[in-house]
């Protein structure tokens, strides 16, 4: 296959990436055969897997709207992924065009595509950086001048922390970000879980994602990631149960979600 314009030279087209596999699950077009195969295998094991992706995107939209209502006017979206319907800047700038958004991802396809669609938007940008190196990420996030670290920030860690292994200490990564943002900031986290469907979680964790390494964590481990933050109601809950706005948000059946989510407030 010829290299498409959206795939920089550094991208290995024979190896699945979490960003492109997720894009394939959402029906996007920035993925390769190897990503589509990984997504198809996941669907074979757990047929409602695409619903998890939709449910997660719906949580992202609601969390952004919640933060805007709470007065947040700038977002740091880490592990932002390949742009898809309902991107943070679209949701936020529709409500208030002055909102600023910095997308951060480790995947060059995600960052290149984000930078392309953001051309001409002075209030949004994209940065390639690694959440596992929070000091470097934060230093570089300050550079474009888009995010003012003296004003409250909406930090989005949506469907990314489960891509960090236990030894990479995801909880410490959240703590480093929490320490860097001012009081009044919010942190949204969603994370795949073994809490409700342990058998499906084990199947997906071990097989479908081999080579990618997704960690399905239990409720306690996900809740601990919010240490030091005041939980916004209703706390850490299944994805479709976090402040649903309409029936459209019920992509997954409550009681059977493969993801937990919550929003914490730095007070
Ligand atoms: N946040 C988006 C959403 O929820 O729709 C995309 C989620 S996607 C499943 C996870 C993203 O995290 C991928 O784009 C992947 O490249 C990115 N990612 C994985 N590890 C990362 C790391 N160490 N630092 C930054 N981004 C990372």
From TrEMBL:
Basic and acidic residues bias: start-end ranges: 245-254
Pfam entry (one): Methyltransf_19
Sequence segments annotated as region (Disordered): 245-267
SUPFAM superfamilies per record: S-adenosyl-L-methionine-dependent methyltransferases (SSF53335)
Protein name, UniProt field: S-adenosyl methyltransferase
